[in-house]
Amino acid sequence: MKQLVTAANFAKVAQYADLFKQGMVCTVLLSALTVFFGFLLGLLLAVMRLSSVQPFRFFSVTRDGHFREQGFLFHLSRFNPLSLLATAYVEVFRATPMLVQLWLVYFLLFDKSVIDLPKTTLFGFIRLERFIPGVVALALNSGAYLAEIIRAGIQSIDGGQSEAARSLGLSKKQTLRSVILPPAIKNTLPAIANEFVTIIKESSITYTIGVQDIMSAVNDIKGATYVIIEPLIVATVLYFCLTFPTSKIIAYFERRMSRGDRR
After folding, report:
1. Which of 3.30.360.10, 3.30.160.40, 3.40.30.10, 1.10.3720.10 is the CATH number of 7-262?
2. How does pLDDT run across 98-147, given as a tens digit for each residue?
3. Considering the entire predicted model, what is its pTM?
4. Residue closest to 241 by CA, chosen among 188, 201, 205
5. Which of 50, 51, 197, 215 pairs with 85 at a CA distance of 20 to 30 A?
6. DSSP character for 122?
């Protein structure tokens, strides 16, 4: 028999409003930390993918001084281990389910024999031994997507800017830090902010390892009242209240930034 949506059930759910408030705080904090650490990881991966580290470059020249154009040694001379590692990381994390990654991080990396986190709480209700693995798993996943966003932003910068910086005597590191990255990050800010909205929704999966987010509140209320539809409706409204205004704010700033570029 299907469960009907009733006012009486909503009244039962209202008694657990504090759980939803705590879940919202946890969800926002989880998403913000995920995007922050995911951005740092994505920036590192993007730079690795665009790096020109070729330890076997000397194989590109034959003994008589000519450049190779084919063959094993030619391909070996172009081998870039940093780019290969970053590409493999991005492809693996983008091609595997988030739930699998979350459980691997929680049950493998944060096993007591590997990393034993202290059983303490933040704000009195966020259990760090569950929260930190959730942040790590989401950040590892988000970093793979942000890496592609940042890489596209870097590649969108006109190559003439790099040449001008090098002609002024700047090193590759200085050129990247002072000339390439600032406009590249500016160009990718809307996409990075949209990733924050995406993470707010995807963070709901962390309730499976005990993170006290909005879906965890739904699960607790279901166990206490045997009511499921009404808590899910409340959770839907809360996620909408978090994501919809955020997406509109992002769109507003994106329009402002594009107007400034046109000037």
Report:
1. 1.10.3720.10
2. 999 999 999 998 887 778 888 888 888 889 999 999 999 999 999 999 99
3. 0.85
4. 201
5. 197
6. E
